[in-house]
Design brief:
FAD; Rossmann fold; six-stranded antiparallel sheet; transmembrane helix; 25 strands; single chain; Riboflavin_synthase-like_b-brl; NADPH-hemoprotein reductase activity
Length: about 675
């Protein structure tokens, strides 16, 4: 570059006769200045490479080929998981561990981390098998980490998977409309692409007993695998550790995790974008009780997202990362006789595994039990099986192994003693005094504490810097007389606006949803949301009000709400009645289920207004939204709409059912439900 500069200056230098030749002529100086100026401008204005934010790992040479990884590590079974709450991942880990008992080697894998186009190459590995543990999320959707795999399956019609041996275990919930849709789709689609199913699709129902469904399936699955590949079980039923303990006696505490989800110190130095691996610490600006009476605690919280660059839409979900009750954690430490403040790491014994630790390490036992591990849900049978060896009383050992078996007596004992009695790990340790496992093995076996999702109760058009949550505190007495408390709702309840002069914060991120207001504001909307199911509709009502203020023409906005007693738990009464007065809500129908002798629910009010509803749906293109309890309310509401279509539309029951199904397909009947 400087060379060409020099050439340019020399081409224009002509000596002047009889005068002392100056070193540079004016033209030289002008051109030189111009070029230097241009160079400086070029250097200053060119786009500087953006610094890589700390929390984003610089591109590593992480192996995206699971085939190469399997070859390198001598694995022949790969268990892919589509997991939203951690259960499918847990089952995948259990199946990959099982492989060892049959003389095979397995690995659990997140489909998001690998090139799934390599499935056709699995035949390169002898006796290879792909297992898919696939959960269904929301309205028949894939989990976040299986979305790309789902898209790949849909798009690649010419893929030849004839060399692939596979089986699928699906995780779902029967109370939902699209029961196990993702698992069923993967099972069917792999067969369509030529893969060979070596064992029947397993269907796990979380509304019943998911653990029992899994064990029963697994019990028949492994013998089928042995038969298919001509291998025999080794009869090795001993416990197999996945991680080894390292205690850190002399460590810089700045290197120790204190509850961060992803990057170390990410709660001290916050950097966008915020997501499930990098949550934003949102200050709590409002935390008030909504109900005027009764023994329940319904609450409204507001989280401040100013400066976070977080965007949300009405109908989205906010995910929060709760922590366990410190009293529970302390009791666990006491009963196991452990110093909870020891700094430890649990390191994977398989050096090649992508998962180096079961939770962020190094950390203390206290942090792990508070922030990272689920200690409140009843443990699954594999935990009981692995811990049984530590019971000094043979009777306790026998009972634990029995509960983990697939025998009818064992299943019944697990159902009654663990599930029906809602015994968490602490209750089991208290009720089995001879069982005192090493805390590191306990921490290895406990599932991860998961984020909790809440429907956002505000509109970003009205509250761009604030996210509202509406929830009911979970607390109940178990059959053993213990009081069990919901982790997240009790944690939220205690998030006071200022706590000892400090602002309370909630680690959170946004999960996008399909639950959306109609694109055309003129479309009528019918909202059905009893109890805390009203949450997304508070956002919808705010948004329709905002649209009206903008001078937009807004269609009918109808709200069906339900609660127990008008003077106790009619939450958001003032806001709803004001919206009705302002004409934002064109109809407000409220069912008070216990204010009279016979119970009145939202579905009864729907039936009473069938003419009006049918007109809105059938002739005015109304959109229907249902939010709340999936097990009873959502089903009853749907049945009521079938009946309305039958009566008002003169249809047979099958036609009425198809009519409502079509509304769902067109996106005119949306549900945001939980069980």
């Amino acid at each position: 570059m400087y060379k060409s500069c020099h050439c340019m200056t020399t081409t224009h230098t002509e000596p002047m006769a009889d005068e002392e030749e100056p070193l540079f002529s004016n033209l030289d100086i002008f051109l030189f200045s111009l070029i230097v100026g241009l160079l400086i401008y070029w250097f200053m204005s060119r786009k500087k490479p953006e610094p890589i934010p700390e929390f984003k790992k610089a591109p590593t040479t992480r192996e995206t080929s699971f085939i190469e990884k399997m070859k390198k590590t001598g694995k022949n079974i790969i268990v892919f998981y589509g997991s939203q709450t951690g259960t499918a991942e847990e089952f995948a880990n259990r199946l990959s561990k099982d492989a060892q008992r049959y003389g095979m080697k397995g690995m659990a894998a997140d489909p998001e981390e690998y090139d799934m186009g390599e499935l056709s190459r699995l035949s390169e590995i002898e006796n290879a098998l792909a297992i898919f543990c696939m959960a269904t999320y929301g309205e028949g959707d894939p989990t976040d980490n299986a979305q790309d795999f789902y898209d790949w399956l849909q798009e690649n019609d010419d893929e030849d998977l004839s060399g692939l041996n596979y089986t699928v275990f699906a995780l779902g919930n029967k109370t939902y409309e699209h029961y196990n849709a993702m698992g069923k789709y993967v099972d069917k689609r792999l067969e369509e692409l030529g893969a060979k199913r070596i064992f029947d699709l397993g269907l796990g129902d979380d509304d019943g007993n998911l653990e029992e469904d899994f064990i029963s399936w697994r019990e028949q699955f492994w013998p089928a695998v042995c038969e298919h590949f001509g291998v025999e079980a080794l009869g090795d039923e001993s416990s197999i550790r996945q991680y080894e303990l390292k205690e850190h006696t002399d460590i810089n505490m700045n290197k120790v995790y204190t509850g961060e989800i992803g990057r170390l110190k990410s709660f001290e130095v916050q950097k966008p974008p915020f997501d499930s691996k990098n949550p934003f610490l949102a200050p709590v600006t409002v935390n008030r009780r909504l109900n005027k009476g009764g023994d329940r605690h319904l609450m409204h919280l507001e989280l401040d997202i100013t400066g976070s660059k977080i965007r949300y839409e009405s109908g989205d979900h906010v995910a929060v990362f709760p922590t366990n009750d410190s009293a529970l954690v302390n009791k666990l430490g006491q009963i196991l006789g452990v110093d909870l403040d020891v700094v430890i790491s649990l390191n994977n014994l398989d050096d090649e595994s992508n998962k180096k630790h079961p939770f962020p390490c190094p950390t203390t036992y206290r942090t792990a039990l508070t922030h990272y591990l689920d200690i409140t849900h009843p443990p699954r049978t594999n935990v009981l099986y692995e811990l049984a060896q530590y019971a000094s009383d043979p009777k306790d050992q026998e009972a634990m192994r029995k509960m983990a078996s697939s025998s009818p007596e064992g299943k019944a004992l697990y159902q009654s003693w663990v599930l029906d009695a809602s015994r968490n790990i602490l209750a089991i340790l208290e009720d089995m005094p001879s069982l005192r496992p090493p805390i590191d093995h306990l921490c290895e076996l406990m599932p991860r504490l998961q984020a909790r999702y809440y429907s956002i109760a505000s509109s970003s058009k009205v509250h761009p810097n604030s996210i509202h949550i509406c929830a009911v505190v979970v607390e109940y007495k178990t059959k053993t007389g213990r009081i069990n408390k919901g982790v997240a709702t009790n944690w939220l309840k205690n998030k006071l606006v200022t706590d000892n002069g400090h602002k309370s914060t909630v680690p959170m991120y946004i999960r996008k949803s399909q639950f959306r207001l109609p694109f055309k504001a003129t479309n009528p909307v019918i909202m059905i949301g009893p109890g805390t199911g009203i949450a997304p509709f508070m956002g919808f009502i705010q948004e329709r009000g905002w649209l009206k203020q903008q001078g937009k023409e807004v269609g009918e906005t109808v709200m069906y709400f339900g609660c127990r007693h008008k003077n106790e738990d009619y939450i958001y009464q003032e806001e709803l009645e004001e919206a009705e007065r302002n004409g934002v809500l064109t109809q407000l129908k409220v069912a008070f289920s216990r204010d009279q002798e016979h119970k009145v629910y939202v579905q009864h009010l729907l039936k009473n207004n069938k003419e009006d509803l049918w007109k809105l749906i059938h002739t005015e293109n109304a959109h229907i939204y249902v939010c709340g309890d999936a097990r009873n309310m959502a089903k009853d509401v749907q049945t009521t709409f079938h009946e309305i279509a039958e009566e008002m539309g003169g249809m047979m029951r099958t036609q009425a059912t198809d009519y409502i199904k079509k509304l769902m397909t067109k996106g005119r009947y949306s549900q945001d439900v939980w069980s």
